[in-house]
Amino acid sequence: MRTRRHVARAVLVTVTAAVLGVAGCDAVGGNSPGPSGTEAQSARPSPKPTPDWDRSPASIAAVGDSITTGFDACSVLSDCPEVSWATGSSPRVDSLAVRLLGKAKAAGHSWNYAVTGARMADLPGQMSRAVARRPELVTVMAGANDACRDTTDAMTPVADFRSQFEEAMGTLRDALPKAQVYVASVPNLMRLWEQGRTNPMSKQVWGLGICPSMLSEPDSLTTAAKQRRETVQERVEAYNEVLEQVCAKDRRCRFDDGAVYDFRFGTDQLSQWDWFHPSVNGQARLAEIAYRTVTH
Fold first, then answer.
1. What is the SS3 assignment for 216?
2. Helix 189-196 crosses helix 223-248 at what angle (to 10 degrees)?
3. What is the longest distance spanned by two Cα atoms in the chain?
4. Rounded distance, CA 73 to CA 95, Å?
5. Of 55, 147, 171, 233, which sits most exposed with the smallest number of CB within 10 A?
6. Per-residue pLDDT tens over the stretch 220-262
7. Residue 141: helix, strand or coil by DSSP?
8. Whose CA is closest to 149, among 141, 157, 138, 159?
9. Which of 130, 123, 132, 127 is CA-nearest to residue 239?
10. Burial of 203 (0-12, 13-18, 19+ CB in 10 A)
11. d(Cα 239, Cα 261) in Å, to the nearest integer?
């Protein structure tokens, strides 16, 4: 997936350069004859295309699931929006909103519409609420709950995931055609299992029903258990392909190029209460990834 992304990005840069290279505007009006030769070159100003991506948006809205609500980061079974990677106010996280807007402005110009437990099917509704604020940047992090189901058969089909994300993007574009979108990849659920499977506490908590499609029977190394985990992982990778492909069709959308999925998180980045959601430290790392993507 990374190779295809890099090739696609190289092609996009080449095509964009070619388009900008031939763009121009005639500086002569009315019935005056147009200049030619060297005179034409001096009379025609250099093209100044409006950039499609603004690294300094003035407002931010977040949509998504429990990762963006800060669930289980501050206390057990509770949202903690103040440590949200996207819009939180905590200096321990230094959220994307604070990094881009400053603490004072972020307080009045960033909004969090993410909902714990949300799946991609919920994103169009969240987006409808977000666009009412007319944000200049919308952050999207969703998909983990589509893979974290009771069984692998219950995971959201890839085609449905695609149509739901396209609907959410359509909702945004109908209302705000110039708003920018940052799309985070779905985290690596296999790494969650790898990080916590030897910890007695995490296994006990997982047994209460956290992401059973991946995390149930964490000690089992049977062929069936391995196949189940691989099936979930393949679905996560397929979701990320969808996020990348749909985002690539929108010139004001940036996918994180798989940075969240590729992040080599450890136990310090996981909630001490469920060993699944990001800790405050983990939220800070997500904010760093988002900021790099938005401002590069």
1. coil
2. 140
3. 84
4. 14
5. 55
6. 999 999 999 999 999 999 999 999 999 999 999 999 999 999 9
7. strand
8. 157
9. 123
10. middle
11. 11
